Amino acid sequence: MPSLLSVARALTVALALLATGLAQAPAVSADDSGTWSVAPSAGGGTRPAKDGRPYFYVEGTPGSVLEDTVTVTNPGSKPRTVELSGADADNTKGGAYSLERGKPKDTGSWITFAERTVKVPPRTRAEVPFSVSIPESAVPGDHPGAVVAREGGRDAGVRVHLRVSGPMLSALTVERVRAEGGRITYDVVNRGNTVLTPRLTVHAEGVFGPLLDRKPRTLPVELLPGRRVTLTEPWKDAPALDSVKVTLTVTASGGAHGKATASARFVPWGVVAGAGAGVLGLVAAGVWFVRRRRAAAAELPPDEEPEQGVREPELAGVGTAEGEQL
After folding, report:
1. Exposed/middle/buried for 156, CB within 10 Å: 0-12, 13-18, 19+?
2. Residue 240 or residue 306, greater confidence
3. CA separation (Å) from 169 to 84, 192, 293?
4. What distance lies between CA 223 and its chain's CA centroid?
5. Distance CA 202, CA 215 (A)
6. Residue environment code for 189-212, b if the CB has 16+ CB neighbours within 10 A, otherwise e
7. pTM listed for this prediction
């Protein structure tokens, strides 16, 4: 296997010959927009393709060294100096594929280029070999990363799908299901060691029967091993008043399956608040009326107090004179 140094020298010669040939070719319109590009070289890698590859795919056992080539193309009329580096992959909060910032610790740190700084003449492309050295301690499974090129404040990258040979586990769970405000929020967690694209099924049951029954659909997520993402499922026609049981089921290739349920109560709080205010108003009026009656009774003078009980009638013509004995 040729060393990286010998490959680098061959690269320099190839660039010189390619630049000479292009110089003798008919003139083309200049492109100074800076739209240089980076891509996998055609026909390289462990899965070559004549019509080009959208990404790098490499697979090997712990301790192995894998090789491939990246192409940097400069269609403009000015030379470009491009810096190459490796990066680790990550998920955004919504589950999209992204790259981690900072110093790589996984796949990005295992990538070594024949040249990290590549000078690409006008209307020329550079073929840059690189290697991926898998550590002996690498965990089996998918280790996604990327080859990143930087020049003039612009970054461009190509995905690296690296799989370390060994036992593969496809597993995921759905957690923290919540139904409120016309939406269902939930978490999906990749518990295995392979990249997963989950499919979601949603079912909701109310007091009087089914309310929601959505067929399985593929989520716009590339869930990396060990990652958790929070997703939202819209439910615009959620009931105004009901007690609901929501069931979410997620599946993925390799037999991955997860299921979770949650209970929710839908109450029209605006109506309840209005009714409660009316009841409170009636109670307040009743209390005010009772207190008013008590206050009025307390203000009556003693001689005007209402008579209590039954008084004996006075009989005319019946009595005793002073000093007279009956």
Report:
1. middle
2. 240
3. 33, 5, 79
4. 10
5. 7
6. bbebbbbbebbbebebbeeeeebb
7. 0.68
